[in-house]
Design brief:
Distance between the termini: 61 Å
Bound molecules: pyridoxal-5'-phosphate
Shape: globular
Structural class: alpha/beta
Length: 380
């Protein structure tokens, strides 16, 4: 008889429920024999990566027998220059997800706590529980707040106690799209004790928020030694499949994280592609423009339909379509459209829809009109 391996696992791991990814496009293609899938479930860039990034990744494939540069090489310096910080403040990650994991590994453990808000990015809970630490979950803003279901920074500050080592804040937040101003975040940073690390997750920074008060927290690193900022190449840079992100922190914090990461945690093609993507401003501008146009189009339709959506930060719209999100998700599948139901995030009434290209948005709207029996606007 085999032994009960689950009983042998660390307590934190035994209690984990794994991350639920969006439905993969290839799976839908197989199940329904569909050719043209509109994949709007994972907040990827619908334009794809910068052509220069693809060329750069291909170029290094011929040298795949060699290990990548362990410290990240020139790319790390490029990131440091991009933010006007020293390279010693930069930690590269296999996606920004890895930075969150490295923080948990370095600073959390049994009898240590991490604060995050109820409807925030799922990986905060996974990293905390995986480290065997105590989730200090703050209640969200109420439904009638200007930033509904978003992170309530006062409630989060109230969760901080002597056991707290990390606070996770996404700006904008996934899946609620809500965001914080510079004044709100700096007041929070000033209020929490200096021995609590405050992680500001800026995975959607490059899509950003259309408001002049939306801040770039990386500019405050010198002012707040306990601030950690994370960025991703998976969203606006269109490199989700290559897994690149980074953290910016006090050199001592960065050094601790660099101690625990794998020596070659970011692959050579990923490093090459990310370097080219960071330099390609034109592709970024185009990606932002497509996102803004798609956002305005979809919001107009939801307004016409009288459906409630949350504030739009980043490249997704979280909308309540009048039936449970799960039902919308399932009804759209046979039509070749994938969106993200949010029951997993505790928002059963909502679906999260990534803003696509103009053609994808039109297909989405036409499919929604059909499954919800709503008027398709003219021309669709
Ligand atoms: C997508 C996402 C990330 C993770 O991105 P990777 O760089 O692909 O690991 C981190 N935080 C938030 C809020 C996200 O939505």
């Amino acid at each position: 008889m085999s032994c009960d391996f689950a009983a042998l696992a660390n307590a934190g791991i035994r209690g984990l429920s794994p991350y639920q990814a969006g439905k993969p496009e290839a799976e839908l293609r197989r199940e329904y024999g569909l050719d043209h899938i509109v994949a709007l479930a994972a907040n990827e860039n619908p334009l794809g990566p910068s052509p220069g990034a693809v060329a750069a990744a291909k170029e290094v494939l011929g040298r795949a027998a060699r290990y990548p540069e362990g410290g990240g090489g020139e790319f790390k310096h490029q990131v440091a220059r991009h933010h006007g910080v020293e390279p010693s403040c930069v930690v590269l990650g296999n996606g920004s997800n890895e930075i969150l994991e490295l923080l948990a590994r370095a600073f959390l453990g049994p009898e240590r706590g991490a604060v995050y808000s109820r409807h925030s990015f799922a990986v905060y809970a996974l990293a905390t529980q995986g480290a065997g630490a105590v989730p200090q979950v703050a209640p969200p803003n109420p439904a009638d707040h200007p930033m509904p279901y978003g992170q309530d920074l006062a409630a989060m500050a109230a969760q901080v106690d002597a056991t707290t080592r990390l606070v996770f804040i996404a700006n904008p937040n996934n899946p609620t799209g809500t965001w914080h101003t510079e004044a709100e975040l700096t007041a929070f940073l000033a209020a929490v004790p200096g021995d609590v690390l405050v992680v500001v997750d800026e995975a959607y920074f490059d899509y950003g928020v259309d408001h002049r008060d939306y801040p770039d927290a990386s500019r405050w690193l010198a002012r707040y030694p306990n601030l950690v900022v994370t960025r991703s190449f998976s969203k606006a840079h269109g490199l989700a499949g290559l897994r690149v992100g980074y953290g910016l922190a006090h050199p001592q914090v960065a050094e601790l994280l660099n101690r625990t990461r794998q020596p070659f945690n970011v692959s050579a093609p990923a490093l090459a592609a990310a370097a080219a993507a960071l330099a390609d401003r034109e592709h970024m501008e185009k990606s932002r423009a497509v996102n803004r146009a798609g956002r305005d189009f979809l919001c107009r339709i939801f307004d016409q339909w009288g459906r409630r959506y949350l504030p739009v930060g980043g490249n997704f719209i979280t909308v309540a379509l009048g039936v449970p999100g799960r039902q919308v998700f399932e009804a759209l599948l046979p039509k070749g459209v994938i969106v993200r139901p949010l029951a997993y995030y505790g928002l059963e009434d909502f679906v999260r829809i990534t803003i696509g290209t103009e053609g994808e948005n039109r297909r989405l709207v036409a499919a929604l009109a059909e499954v919800l029996d709503l008027d398709a606007p003219g021309g669709l």
